Amino acid sequence: MEAAARLARLRREAAEYYRGHRVPERMEEALNALFPLCPEDLYGELANYLSKFSKAPVISRLVGRKVFDGVGQPTLEVEIYCTVKNYEKRICSTVMATHSQIPEHALPETIEADEKERNDSVHTAVEWVNESLSSMLRDLEPTDQCQADKILGEYFANKVEGKKEIEKQEEGQEGEEKQEEEEAAKVAPAPALRHSAPTSKPKKGGKGKKVLVEVTPIPPAEPAEPALCGSLAIGGTSLAIAKAGATILHIPLYLHTALLKHNQEAPKEMTLPLPMVTLLNCEKNSPTKLKLVKEVMLIPPVELSFKQPGPQTDIKKGKAQKALAPALKGMSHLGCLTTGYDSLEQLLLQMQIACNNLGLELGKDMYLALNCAAHGLMDYGKEKYEILTGTFKSPDEMVAMYVEMINKFPFIIALIDPLRKEDREQWSSICCALGSKCYLIAEDAATQISKLKTDQNINVATCSGVVLKYINQTKVSDLIELTGILDGQRHITILGSPDGESSDESLVDLAVGLGARFLKLGGLSRGERVAKYNRLLAIEEELAANGALREAKLEFVDFAEESQPEQLPDVLPAPEQD
């Protein structure tokens, strides 16, 4: 009797429970909807139909671990696990790329110190992910990128403040005397006085008077802002959540990124970024004389599909490397040939000959971009750039040299870091002189993204566009915000691959989703770089198949014709570097 009563009670509770969740109603809807279709896998189709009523997946935990990047350096991998239909499931992972500012041929002790700092940073990042961030992000929907990045940003800001507090306490313990010395060191030296030549010829019987002229020294190099130990955890977690969100929504990451940027409004067409394919890496410390050029890159014309059909594919995509084999010294970590030249003309003429031998005409079938990396050319004793061994030019002379170069070689349509970021007047001059026919792009000449977040009125130089790199504490939301500002100020966006690239292909999806004009990935060698070119091919094929591929355009800005000088766009900060 008691057993029967218990069973009846359970039946009533079950009926109430299922009615409360509208199960009978939903089952009837599903059966009515599926019967006309008579699906081959009835239970699979029932599962699909009812799954839309299930709870949204939420993050259950994060897993951080130490792995190695494409050049064998330690970096961070972040895995995302979610609770999906009551079960924990691994959704995706991401591996962060790393960037080092250690110069070529650095001293052994400098390299050793950098390696120790890198190892410490990765170890700290793994701890942040596995402990604090995993707990803070638990139960958050991975599709809520804004909330995730807000939590990550607040966590990082607290870490920065904590570090400042520790440094402040350490300074206090060192005593007032050391503090005074540090403050004195921060005081800028007075402008140097130099003797100039006589301003006029002396009259007969008289003597020419030497005049003391105040000469303003060149601005000193701004010190690189050090990355906070463990900052990889922020960028790695943000990107992993973006990938998880795309996976949960069953859409590619590039479309998920575009939806995030455009407030969930799906674009009807998307433009592929043009690849900047690094062909040559010119060593500045080689026995050859030329120091002005760090990288030589090929840019295809906009009408040429990246996936060129037919037998000409191989010719269009990389045989120029074979034509330059006599200059070969080895393969760079950038996935290209390492070489050196004695003059700029020698380099550019050999590029022309190599392309002509392959049936390619520079300026029609292919264009060139040069990465000058001018920040590494300045001789601060002479206050001039050393463009060739023993040949020096002032910032103003550099501008004149670039104008002559572009006029002589019009197939060069982009210069990256032609000047240091501190030479702001010359940036304005070169943009006015060349901006209508050549992109003047800031990479290392741009400032850190952290300064953009704290000071919207930062005063930096004029340029055509900025190379952005996804490293350290950069978040997906940061790139979305920054590219939106760049778009509004007629700048172009270039997403760049750092030196320590990983096998993760997400950078390509981000570039497509953000609407970047160019994608700077290095050469067509090394697996971690080729994987990204292959991903670009796959996206192009998918967009073309869906009728959503829009042709890119090469549009320059004529800075000289801007009516209001104060309206000229400024260089916006790029992601912070190690």
Automatic annotation (TrEMBL):
<dbReference type="GO" id="GO:0004634">
    <property type="term" value="F:phosphopyruvate hydratase activity"/>
</dbReference>
<dbReference type="InterPro" id="IPR000941">
    <property type="entry name" value="Enolase"/>
</dbReference>
<dbReference type="InterPro" id="IPR029017">
    <property type="entry name" value="Enolase-like_N"/>
</dbReference>
<protein>
    <recommendedName>
        <fullName>Enolase 4</fullName>
        <ecNumber>4.2.1.11</ecNumber>
    </recommendedName>
</protein>
<dbReference type="InterPro" id="IPR047500">
    <property type="entry name" value="DD_ENO4"/>
</dbReference>
<dbReference type="GO" id="GO:0000287">
    <property type="term" value="F:magnesium ion binding"/>
</dbReference>
<dbReference type="GO" id="GO:0006096">
    <property type="term" value="P:glycolytic process"/>
</dbReference>
<dbReference type="InterPro" id="IPR020811">
    <property type="entry name" value="Enolase_N"/>
</dbReference>
<dbReference type="Pfam" id="PF00113">
    <property type="entry name" value="Enolase_C"/>
</dbReference>
<feature type="region of interest" description="Disordered">
    <location>
        <begin position="166"/>
        <end position="209"/>
    </location>
</feature>
<dbReference type="InterPro" id="IPR020810">
    <property type="entry name" value="Enolase_C"/>
</dbReference>
<feature type="domain" description="Enolase N-terminal">
    <location>
        <begin position="59"/>
        <end position="257"/>
    </location>
</feature>
<feature type="compositionally biased region" description="Acidic residues">
    <location>
        <begin position="172"/>
        <end position="183"/>
    </location>
</feature>
<dbReference type="GO" id="GO:0000015">
    <property type="term" value="C:phosphopyruvate hydratase complex"/>
</dbReference>
<keyword id="KW-0324">Glycolysis</keyword>
<feature type="domain" description="Enolase C-terminal TIM barrel">
    <location>
        <begin position="269"/>
        <end position="551"/>
    </location>
</feature>
<comment type="similarity">
    <text>Belongs to the enolase family.</text>
</comment>
<dbReference type="InterPro" id="IPR036849">
    <property type="entry name" value="Enolase-like_C_sf"/>
</dbReference>
<comment type="pathway">
    <text>Carbohydrate degradation; glycolysis; pyruvate from D-glyceraldehyde 3-phosphate: step 4/5.</text>
</comment>
<keyword id="KW-0456">Lyase</keyword>
